[in-house]
Design goal:
There is one protein chain. This protein has nine helices and nine strands. It is of the alpha/beta class and about 240 residues long. Strand 3 (about 90-95), helix 4 and strand 4 form a beta-alpha-beta unit. The radius of gyration is 18 Å and the shape is globular. It binds pyridoxal-5'-phosphate. Pyridoxal-5'-phosphate (PLP) binds near residues 51 and 233.
Length: about 240
């Protein structure tokens, strides 16, 4: 006997139910955080971070109305975006560390790259985006504590990188992104990110995106003005460890 895992099997039905419940809970958290901050809930976009989870999960969440998905490795993202090209139009957000030699590939399927953190990436992203003849939205990743492991530009260097993105013909400076340093109070981290975002908006008024907040800290992020939250675990459950 084979145990099916196709869309009509009991296993898949159980997964739909799990995702439906998790999505409702996350949407409730978003709505409550927006209400507490005096913001409209449509000001915040939920990016479902699907890294390590199968394309089938993405398909099920898309059927539940989610359109924005986040991935952190090029090969996996490229495969999933290809597999799902026949369904509803999805927006792919690249949220992982950028390697220079992957930028051209990422530019082909990504709508928004959240992790631009050094000038030399801009030429590669521009090159890839020019081939697709469309605008690639880019966020400057800000390092709030200067720890090189997580990536990101120190706040003082953000304006120069933002200018570099703005100057590229096929890149659109859309805003900023950060991950709160683990040892920090998230309210302080996201408050500092908000200040960096304000400075970028003085340079480029259209750069309104603040990508901040994950499963554990989306409330303080929304309180500090996040427009995009990147949620993985709270939607899909725990990830298997990533083997590199
Ligand atoms: C994995 C990841 C997320 C999602 O984190 P969760 O804690 O699972 O919600 C968000 N942002 C980035 C940059 C990530 O790499």
């Amino acid at each position: 006997m084979t145990v099916g895992s196709g869309p009509t099997s009991p296993l898949a039905a159980g997964r739909v139910e799990e995702l439906r419940v998790a999505l409702a809970a996350v949407r409730d958290r978003l709505a409550a955080a927006c209400a507490a901050a005096g913001r409209a809930s449509d000001e915040v976009t939920l990016v479902a971070v699907s890294k390590t989870h199968p394309a089938h999960d993405v398909r099920l969440l898309a059927e539940l109305g989610v359109r924005d998905f986040g991935e952190s490795r090029d090969q996996e993202a490229r495969r999933k975006s290809g597999e799902l090209a026949d369904g509803p139009q999805l927006r792919w957000h690249f949220v992982g560390r950028l390697q220079r030699n992957k930028c051209r590939s990422i530019a082909r399927y990504a709508d928004c790259v959240h992790t631009v953190d050094r000038p030399e990436l801009c030429d590669e992203l521009e090159d890839g985006a020019a081939r697709t003849r469309r605008l690639l939205r880019c966020l400057v990743q800000v390092s709030l504590d200067g720890d090189p492991v997580r990536g990101g530009m120190p706040a003082r260097d953000v304006p120069a990188l933002a200018d570099r993105i703005s100057a590229a013909a096929h890149l659109e400076l859309a805003g900023v992104m950060a991950v709160a340093p683990q040892a920090w109070d998230p309210a302080r981290a996201f408050g500092e990110l908000h200040a960096v975002a304000e400075r970028v908006r003085q340079q480029a008024p259209a750069a309104r995106v603040i990508s901040a907040g994950m499963s554990a800290d989306l409330e303080p992020a929304i309180a500090a003005g996040a427009t995009h939250v990147r949620v993985g675990t709270a939607l899909f459950g725990h990830r298997p460890p990533i083997l590199r």
